[in-house]
Structures are given as C-alpha cells and as structure tokens.
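Hi there, hope your week has been kind to you so far. Would you mind checking whether the tokens look sensible for this chain? I owe you a coffee for this, so here goes:
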Amino acid sequence: MSTTTEATPAESAAMQRALLLAARGVRGANPLVGAVVLGVDGRVLGEGYHRGAGTPHAEPAALADARERGNDPRGATMVVTLEPCNHTGRTGPCSEALIEAGMARVVHAADDVNGAAAGGAQRLRAAGIDCVGGLGAAASLELNERWSTALAAGRPFVTLKSAQSLDGRVAAVDGTSQWITGPEARADGHRLRGLADAVLVGSGTVRADDPRLTARDADGVGVTAAPGLRAVMGRTPVPDDAAVRGEGFLHLPTHEVGEALDELYGRGVRHLLVEGGPRIASAFLRAGVVDELFSYVAPLMLGDGAPAYPDLGVGSLADAARWMLDDAGGPGVRQFGADVRLHLRPPSAAQT
C-alpha cells in the first residue's frame, strides 16, 4: 500500500474538495472519484469528477477543465481521491494521461483495489513523478464501500429495504399493503433507489402492486433519478403492460439468488437494492448476501397479515442472527414522519 508523506495545506484542502466532487458522480460499475489540479503556487487550476461508466475519468476531466480555463498543467500537482488507474478499458489509463500532461506530483487518497486497474502509482514513479498516497483514504474508502465490497465478493453489494408494521407484517390479511408507511418514509425509500445501480422485486410484487421502480420526488410524481436496471426476478412472465417495462427493464427468470446476482454483476451492477416481497426478501437473507438492511417500521399492527421475512430457517433463539445498527454516514435510527427507519448490518459486517 502507498504511504502518506506530509501534505501541504493546499493539498489537504484540495483533497477535501476532490471528495466533494467525487460524491457528485453516478454510483455503478466504476468508483466515485474526484480530482483537483494545483499549480506550483497552490492555486486551483482545474477540477473534475467521474460522471459514470464510459465518461472521462476524474483526472482527464480535471486536466481538460484546467486547459479550458487557460491553465497549463505541466509541473502541477494532481490531487485525486483514488490511485490513478493503469489499464485501458472504455477510456485510456489515467497514469499515462498524467505522464503526458507533464505532472510533477500526484497525491491520491485510497489505493485502487481493482486488480485490473491497479499499479498506477508505480507507473507514475517509474516515469519520475513524485507520487504519494493515503491522504483522505478513509473518506475515499467509505465513499466507495459498496463498489469495493462488490469487487471483493464478485457480486453486487446488496441493500435490502422493507416497510412493515410494528408486528412485522408487510400486508394485511386481505393483501393490501399500500401504504404501510407515510410519505416521508416513502420519499427516503425513493432516495435509496436513486443511489443504486439496479432495483429488484419479485414477479409476485409486480402482479400485486405493479410498481414502476423509479426514484420519484416527495409527492411521488416527478422522476428524480432512475436506476440503471429495473429487475424482476421469478419464472412467471411479466405482463406486457406492466409499469416496470421500458428502457432499463430486465426479467430474471430464476428463483435462485446466486444466478440473479451473477447476471446483474455481469451487466455492471455493483449496488443492488432489493425491494421484493416477503419471499424474495427471505431468499436473499437465507443466501447470506444481504450487506445492509433498511427497515421502515410504521406505528400500526396488522395481526395475521403477511410476515416480512418468512421461512428463514430459524429453529431457536440461538439460531437467530443479531443484526447491528449502522451509524456510519448518519444515525442508525431515524424518524420519518410517524415512521422509524432502522439501518442495520449483518453480524459478520459489524465484526470486521
């Protein structure tokens, strides 16, 4: 791993700016990365961030911005939130772009954990560029936790979302489920959709609720963001007039969680939001692939309605997994209107 050398005040400030820029990007097959070009006097010459798969990486975007401002980046310092990549994919290697631009120094935060793209720092040093890493690494790693977890596991990072009553029901006896939670909680759920690469439900949910699976505003009207894919899992055909159909729709005709995750990962999905009904939710939990859980709890009781997580295979209290509140990035317990949201991680994640 790269080691940190003492950064100048200008470089530290530039890294904070680069992290803010990175957060503007689109989560997905590539990490969130921001970059700032500093002149020898510490002045910002240009800045940029990666806007999504197929678009210029943060470093070339920052170099282009510098040139558009009339600034020559030769002899300057590149401050970037991730080690510059060293491979050719949809775009060329950032390490070579920095060498060609005549950069004198590169300060990066986290090392690149993608084996195919790693080695940029070594390449830069071989070309005579002063290159150090570690400044702001913790913040960069937190920003891209879902991406790095997905790479390590070889499957999408899985977020499971549910809305249930106090007694753990997701529908009344007659099957009605809209709406258990209030508008504030539903708006937060739409925000989660906007962060994911794909949203998945089961074919049963499509038949019962006919969801659109788009991220909408607080009034449930305007589309604020759309996931890369809207996936329906199950062997039952999806009706031609289903609201979920259209650009970005994907039918996964399987009941096996592993097959669905392999298909989605192969399509570039690194963060999956599962919103399916009880059967789908339980299937992902039984498979042990849920990386985080958002549980919205409404202050009502439904008695003999449908349970949120049936058939988990828990035979005794000793068999039950004790999930842990996750306060990273905000409180693990939050109130939205009359409802409460729990943000939880499985025990294995909490122990690491």
